[in-house]
Specification:
The chain is an alpha+beta fold. Helix content is 57%, strand content 17%. It has six helices and six strands; from the N terminus they run H-H-E-E-H-E-E-H-E-E-H-H. A four-stranded antiparallel β-sheet has the order 3-4-6-5.
Length: 166
């Protein structure tokens, strides 16, 4: 979840915004971090320096096709991405996106809990564990789920504060 939220833009430049961007390199999708070094020369700028100069056009094309909404500046050696300051409306849209991804993570966590509960009950039915073991397992699973949900909420609140920071 942390890695997923790192790809959502905040007011500051962060290499994680583009690291996972897939580039079509010799017929196979390759992440940008395998094709170039990514640095932050200024607080609102990313600099991408490809290891192979022939990939500049491919990287530029992938950035334009992505949902980042950034225009790359290519000088033949490096690509610079200038991150404009976020407007209030854009910040709110990004917060909604964070909430949506958090809800997807919560649903996935609930599904895992449901499947594990079913497995525990199946174990009891097949006489592999006792009723006491089943109850203990269900209680432990619930505690773990609640802890993970709390962690998700903290991560979401931190990202929301990061986005709304001017």
């Amino acid at each position: 979840m942390n890695e997923d939220l790192m790809t959502i833009r905040t007011g500051r430049a962060n290499p994680a915004l583009v690291e996972k961007l897939q580039i079509e390199y010799y017929g196979s999708p390759t992440s940008l971090m395998q094709l170039a070094s990514i640095s932050v020369p200024e607080p609102r700028q990313l600099m991408i320096k490809p290891f192979d100069k022939t990939t500049i056009k491919l990287i530029e094309k992938a950035i334009l096709a992505s949902e980042l909404g950034l225009t790359p500046n290519n000088d033949g050696l490096v690509i610079r991405l200038n991150l404009p300051p976020l407007t209030e409306d854009r910040r709110r849209d990004l917060v909604k996106k964070v909430h949506h991804r958090l809800e997807e993570a919560r649903v996935a966590l609930r599904n895992i809990r449901r499947d594990t509960m079913k497995d525990i009950k199946d174990f009891e039915t097949e006489k592999m564990i006792s009723e006491d073991d089943r109850k203990r397992g269900e209680e432990e699973l619930q505690k773990i789920t609640e802890r993970l949900m709390s962690d998700l909420d903290k991560v979401g609140q931190h990202k929301e504060q990061e986005i709304m920071e001017v």
